[in-house]
Amino acid sequence: MYSRIQQRDKDLFQRCVGAQVSNDLGHARIYANECAELRKIAKIVLGSQLALERVILRLETVGEFGTIMSQLAPVMGIVKETKSQIAGIVPQVANELDEVNNVLGELTEETGEISSTNNMNSFEPSDGEAKRILEETGLIAEQRVHDHFPDLPSMEPKADLVPETATKVDFQPEPHPDNGFENQVYDYAKQHAGVFSISTCAGDLGTSADEVRNALDKLRTSGRILIE
Question: How many CA atoms lie within 13 A of 220 on its CB side?
Answer without folding.
Answer: 18
